[in-house]
Amino acid sequence: MKFPTSLDVRMPGLSGLDLQRQTAEAGLEIPIIFITGHGDIPMTVRAMKAGAVEFLTKPFRDQDLLDAIQQALKRSRKVREQQAATEELRRRFALLTSREREVMERVVAGLLNKQIGAELGTSETTVKIHRHQVMEKMGASSLPELVRMADRLGIPVQKS
């Protein structure tokens, strides 16, 4: 579990803002609460734009810190849930055969079964069977749901 981290804009060596930037560049989703006696508006804006949960300037009320921690925990929980859902989609996608993946890519790109069959050199009936398997294995109950899944997986989706 990733717990909220509190940083100060003035720390020995690396500043809190620099540490925030480095964790983001490393792909770490750590909720950060800045606590400082040396903040100004540009620093606050920079920290918040970079994803800080809160920027508290001293003195602050205990309740303000507790509220910020609560918000950070909620944000962290939501990120973990989204990551778990994406991992589940990746697991399902890995179950598809290479032909099913080819069919899925074309389905979410908006091609008709007949067009997919022509591109892949197979019959429309075979495409329908593969398409059904894709829907089953991915756990999609509709084409729009499959398109959303593909988008989350980074599969090119034709935008209307």
Task: Characterise the protein shown here.
The protein is built from 7 helices and 3 strands, in the order E-H-E-H-E-H-H-H-H-H. The protein is mainly α and 160 residues long. It folds into 2 domains: 5-86, Rossmann fold (3-Layer(aba) Sandwich), CATH 3.40.50.2300; 95-153, Arc Repressor Mutant, subunit A, CATH 1.10.10.10. A 3-stranded parallel beta sheet has the order 1-2-3, sandwiched between helices. Helix 4 crosses helix 6 (124-138), helix 4 (98-108) crosses helix 7 (143-153) and helix 5 (113-120) packs across helix 6 (124-138).
Q: What's the structural blueprint in terms of helices and strands?
A:
Blueprint lengths: L4 E3 L8 H10 L6 E5 L4 H9 L4 E4 L4 H33 L3 H11 L4 H8 L3 H15 L4 H11 L7
Parallel strand pairs: 1-2, 2-3
Helix pairs in contact: 4-6, 4-7, 5-6
